[in-house]
Design a protein that fits this description.
Shape: elongated
Number of domains: 1
Order of helices and strands: EEEEEEEEEE
Strand content: over 45%
Oligomer: single chain
Strand order of the largest sheet: 2-1-5-6
Largest sheet: 4 strands, antiparallel
Distance between the termini: 13 Å
Helix content: under 10%
């Protein structure tokens, strides 16, 4: 089983071909995106660990959709002063499908 560890949006994801992921929003509106910041690749038998990245390794993905996540409530409160603030936040994301892992 081939897999790779990719860094995007300040997070690391373990991906295989055919996986569907929600990552931090990408500005790219094209159909295909490539990730060249690959930290580790494995072909099932042995792994290649990058220092800090694996040279020549590229992960290709297809953009499925863009959207916003579920609403999270932020509530700030100061006791005895009647100060309170309630605010909601929805984090934008991009949904992708991994199509190819090139070692």
């Amino acid at each position: 089983m081939n897999f790779a560890i990719v860094k995007t949006g300040g997070k690391q994801y373990k991906v295989s071909e055919g996986d569907v992921l929600r990552i931090e929003k990408l500005e790219s509106t094209g159909e295909e995106v490539t990730f060249d910041n690959v930290l580790l690749t494995s072909d099932g038998k042995d792994a290649t660990v990058g220092t800090p990245t694996v040279p020549g390794a590229v992960v290709t993905a297809k953009v499925l959709s863009n959207g916003k996540g579920e609403k999270k409530m932020v509530f700030r409160y100061k006791s005895k002063t009647r100060q309170r603030k309630k605010k909601g936040h929805r984090q934008p994301y991009t949904e992708i499908r991994i199509t190819k892992i090139s070692l």
